[in-house]
Amino acid sequence: MKFTLSPSLLSADFMILGEQIRRLEQCGIQNLHFDVMDGAYVPSISFGMPVLKSIRKKTKLVLDAHLMVLEPDRYVEDFRNAGADIIVVHAEACRHLDRTVTHIRQTGAKAGVALNPATPVSVLEEILPQLDMVLVMSVNPGFGGQTFLPYCTDKIRRVREMADLRNPALSVQVDGGVNRNTIQEVLDAGADNVVAGSAVFQGDMEANVAELLAFGEG
Ligand code: DX5
Ligand code: ZN
Q1: Which of 127, 59, 132 is nearest to 94 (CA)?
Q2: What pTM was estimated for this model as a whole?
């Protein structure tokens, strides 16, 4: 099954970020995953609007902003203005999820909701028809390079089933610990958008991308 591979820039080499993005474009990548961490919702701090804005000036690739931020409503406009095409917020970090999703859509961005591993799929029940994307976290958010939590595969399957009934166009993204050993099971479970950080940037990037994309052929 065809899928979108979304390299997570968290694992990029920021000294040569522009060059790495150009190389990803040449490999046929169409989507970049931009992990924003605030040091409060998650332990670590990453990068924010100014970095996204610089990237936007240099690439036409789809940019999805994964906001691991408390009360992300405060930053929706900023990330849209910086050039995000898709804005993904954590259900657990929003006081009023419907309000935030509506806000994202009003800016013209696509709206996504992320679920931590321990958050049940049932929190999506009412909001699902309003969404363009659901991000199923397969590690606890906060760091790249963690190990895939196997029980999340079944969550992907259940999100896909719910979407088939209520929002067939929904994109199901999986994020965390996806590599050559785990990608097949997430694709089989119904993910159509796969984030990969270390599995793309560690070692030979071109070879890594080719190997991962090959799982979508046939
Ligand atoms: C984790 C981030 C991920 C991370 C994935 O909080 O949301 O996007 O960069 O990295 P890997 O693919 O190395 O697990
Ligand atoms: Zn992410």
Answers
A1: 127
A2: 0.98
